[in-house]
């Protein structure tokens, strides 16, 4: 009996495999760090074209404010929306993807101490990255190794 309970618990936990970074339902309440519009013709248009906003949780804000390394538990969100232009203005369209970085140095030794995950359309049930983080995300973020792998910086 005890074996059966253990087995079913194991099966349940492997069925709901942990994602690299859990979907943070409240990220729109975090601090807005910056926004950027990536237009057609930009080298990263295929992957990141559109209008993105970056948000930092309170722990990540300590990292942004002091510069250098980010404390354990820092989470930064990359909220990418389609950009709709017309009438000499650009407005937010549908959410394309929610990208996330979470600092957990023990768990993510291979990727600079950061876990990388992305949710298609901002849907918590659609994680995209999984075991592809090193190639899909970290490889490019290594360009900012001196800034703890974070590209953006804080402005007042
Ligand atoms: C080709 C390079 C490249 C790849 C690949 C890439 N990123 Fe980024 N990432 C950037 C750049 C450049 C920025 C800064 C954007 C800005 O300043 O608005 C950024 C910013 C971020 C941020 C905000 C923190 C920061 O570094 O400024 C997060 C979170 C993020 N990316 C997650 C991801 C995830 C998750 C993946 C993989 C699915 C990924 N990135 C793949 C280039 C990349």
UniProtKB/TrEMBL annotation:
Leader sequence residues: 1-17
Keyword Transferase belongs to the record: no
Top-level taxon: Bacteria
Domain annotation Cytochrome P460: ranges: 24-152
Listed CDD domains: cyt_c'_beta (cd20752)
UniProt name for this protein: Cytochrome c
Keyword annotations from UniProtKB, A to Z: Signal
Database matches in InterPro entries: Cytochrome_P460, Cytochrome_P460_sp
Organism of derivation: Oceanococcus atlanticus
């Amino acid at each position: 009996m005890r074996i059966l309970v253990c087995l079913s618990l194991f099966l349940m936990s492997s069925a709901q495999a942990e994602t690299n970074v859990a979907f943070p339902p409240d990220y729109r309440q975090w601090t807005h760090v910056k926004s950027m519009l990536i237009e057609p013709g930009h080298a990263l248009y295929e992957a990141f074209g559109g209008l993105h906003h970056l948000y930092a949780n309170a722990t990540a804000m300590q990292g942004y404010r002091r510069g250098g390394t980010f404390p354990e538990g820092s989470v930064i969100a990359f909220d990418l929306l389609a950009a709709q232009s017309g009438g000499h203005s650009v407005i937010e369209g549908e959410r394309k993807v929610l990208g996330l970085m979470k600092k957990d140095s023990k768990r993510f030794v291979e990727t600079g101490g950061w876990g990388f995950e992305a949710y298609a359309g901002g849907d918590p049930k659609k994680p995209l990255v999984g075991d592809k983080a090193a190639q899909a995300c970290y490889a490019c973020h290594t360009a900012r190794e001196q800034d703890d792998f974070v590209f953006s910086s804080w402005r007042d």
